[in-house]
Each structure stands twice: as C-alpha cells, then as structure tokens.
Amino acid sequence: MERVDGVVLVLPSFTRKWRVPHDVAHAVTERELRIGTGVFGCIAAGVQFENMAVAEGKPKRTAKADSDRILKAVGRSLNVAEVMAGALHHFVEHREAISTAAVRAAWGSMVEAAFPWSDREVVDAFKVLQALDGEWSAGSEPLRFDWPEKLRADRPQYSKVPLAVR
Predict the structure, then answer these.
(1) Do residues 78 and 42 lie in contact, with contact meaning Cβ atoms separated by under 8 Å?
(2) For the chain, which has fewer Cβ within 10 Å, the N-terminal or C-terminal residue?
(3) What is the pLDDT of residues 6-48, one digit of tens each?
(4) Nearest-CA neighbor of 103 among 89, 112, 36?
(5) Quick one: CA torsion of 134, 22, 164, 131, rounded to 10 degrees?
(6) What count of other Cβ atoms lies within 10 Å of the Cβ of residue 32?
(7) Where are the domains of the chain?
C-alpha cells in the first residue's frame, strides 16, 4: 500500500485461503460504506500493524506512538469493520446473491445502534467487490485500488486522494 506520505507498506495477505483476497473485501467494504475506522482507514491515518513491513519511504519518528494512539482511539471499530467486510466477502467468495438481511444481522452482532446504511448502499458495495473479484481473477497485474485520503481513522470524511493497494 502506498500512502500519501510516500511510505509504501507491505501487508501480507493469505490470498490462497480464499478465491477473493480478504484484504480486498476489507478495502472495498470500508471504502464503499465509508468506514474510516477500519483496517485501511487506520493505515491511511498512519497505523502500521505488526505484520506490516516498510518497503519504501521513511515513516515519521513518531510513527509507533501515532499508530498506538490511533488504534486506541478506534477501539472496537476495527472489529465492526472486520464483521462487515466478512459479511460482504462471504457472498462474493461463494458467488451467492447478497442478503442485506444477513449483512444487517452481522452488524447487529457487534453494534446496538441502528444500521447506518441503506440496502442500496450495501448492494452497491457488493457490486464493486464483485467487479474487483473479476479483475483480480482475470489479471496478473497488481490490483490498483484508490483510497479516499480523508477517509481515515482520525478524519473520517470522504474525498478522493489515493492509497493504492498493489
């Protein structure tokens, strides 16, 4: 992943466990549903998870402390992002029609608040993941996936500036 600060990070993926890489499901779900406190929003904000490595660039000297602060601030939100990504991933991975009721139930297993997305938004996110599944399966080139720069754990608003998943 190439962040806007010039740091390029490697996030190992266990892509052969599933036909569709789970990290792709995370990226799509979090971007399309505007979950700035998920895995990729945290990475865009400066988090470096323990299993990640720096491939290019130089992180700030405060990178570890910044990462810890962001992770503490997001708390259970990472778990919610995991559940939502897992729900969409299931339907694409198994080539099943999306069940918005099942996605709502997944949300409800983690959060007591009202479901924040419309069925249309969930279906649209599912369709984007389906399309990227096709692109991933058909190509040998790295998958380019732009991330909105402002969709970050510390600033969860939406605008387009790339974080690339390659």
Answers:
(1) yes
(2) C
(3) 899 888 765 556 677 888 899 999 999 999 999 999 999 989 9
(4) 89
(5) 20
(6) 18
(7) 8-156
